[in-house]
């Protein structure tokens, strides 16, 4: 009987060891995946150097590794082949920020923002790319630019609402969500967000239960 108990205990110990990968194993797996991704991207670039997406993705891998100068180069190549590759533009501004080149980053961000000043849609796409890179200040500039270009579109206000919500500013988030909902009450996600804020709204099948309030096109 004692022998059976010992065998069972050993089996459980071995099973536990097998089911819990060590931190080094996890790190090794992650490195192998990155190496495989990098190899694939380099092959794609070798076959077609004028592939902006491959250069951008390679830049992201270098960026994650902390090889900032190589990331900077790949982002610039991507933009060279696709001047409206908004994710590469935002990533370039981010890598310049990480390289402690704040002035250059700001100048380039303003340049890219001015280049899309003719289109609300492109302004929003660039804004979302900045947002993904954690560059909220530049994202806001794009969203407000989109509001100026398309003041009757619900989408810029929606993006502003989510931006401020993520920043923890519920007052401004509510204002912009309200405005977006007024322009398009068929937005279940906005209705849900307002509901979570304690604002009761009703969709197109009935009257809204709050009084619409005007908000400025741009906050101070």
**CATH level 1 class label of the domain at 43-119:** Mainly Alpha
What share of the residues does DSSP label as strand, in percent? under 5%
Distance between the termini: 78 Å
Major β-sheet annotation: none
Instruction: Classify the fold: give the CATH topology of the domain at 43-119.
Output: Serine Threonine Protein Phosphatase 5, Tetratricopeptide repeat
What order do the helices and strands follow? HHHHHHHHHHH
Number of strands: 0
Which spans have pLDDT < 50 for at least 5 consecutive residues? Answer: 4-18, 205-220
How would you sum up the global shape?
globular
| Mean pLDDT across all amino acids | 85
**CATH homologous superfamily designation of the domain at 43-119:** Tetratricopeptide repeat domain
**If helices are DSSP runs of H or I spanning 4 or more residues, what is the number of helices?**
11
Helix content: over 70%
CATH architecture field of the domain at 43-119: Alpha Horseshoe
Structural class by sheet pairing and helices? mainly alpha
Describe the structure.
It is a single chain. Mean pLDDT is 85; it is low at 4-18 and 205-220. Helix 3 packs antiparallel against helix 4, helix 5 runs antiparallel to helix 6 (102-115) and helix 5 packs across helix 7 (120-132). The protein has eleven helices and no strands. The chain has a domain at 43-119: Tetratricopeptide repeat domain (Serine Threonine Protein Phosphatase 5, Tetratricopeptide repeat). It is an all-alpha fold and 220 residues long. 73% of the residues lie in helices and 0% in strands.
């Amino acid at each position: 009987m004692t022998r059976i108990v010992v065998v069972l205990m050993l089996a459980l110990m071995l099973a536990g060891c097998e089911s819990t990968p060590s931190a080094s194993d996890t790190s090794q797996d992650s490195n192998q995946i990155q190496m495989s991704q990098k190899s694939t991207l380099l092959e794609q670039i070798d076959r077609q150097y004028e592939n902006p997406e491959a250069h951008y993705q390679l830049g992201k891998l270098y960026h994650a590794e902390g090889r900032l100068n190589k990331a900077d180069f790949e982002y610039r190549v991507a933009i060279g082949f696709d001047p409206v590759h908004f994710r590469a533009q935002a990533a370039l501004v981010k890598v310049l920020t990480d390289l402690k080149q704040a002035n250059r980053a700001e100048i380039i961000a303003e340049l890219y923002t001015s280049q899309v000043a003719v289109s609300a849609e492109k302004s929003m796409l660039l804004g979302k790319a900045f947002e993904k890179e954690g560059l909220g200040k530049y994202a806001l500039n794009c969203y407000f630019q989109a509001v100026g270009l398309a003041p009757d579109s619900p989408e810029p206000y929606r993006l502003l609402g989510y931006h401020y919500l993520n920043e923890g500013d519920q007052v401004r988030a509510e204002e912009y969500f309200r405005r977006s909902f007024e322009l398009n009450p068929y937005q279940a996600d906005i209705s849900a967000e307002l509901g979570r804020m304690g604002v009761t709204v009703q969709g197109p099948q009935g009257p809204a239960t709050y009084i619409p309030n005007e908000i400025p096109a741009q906050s101070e």
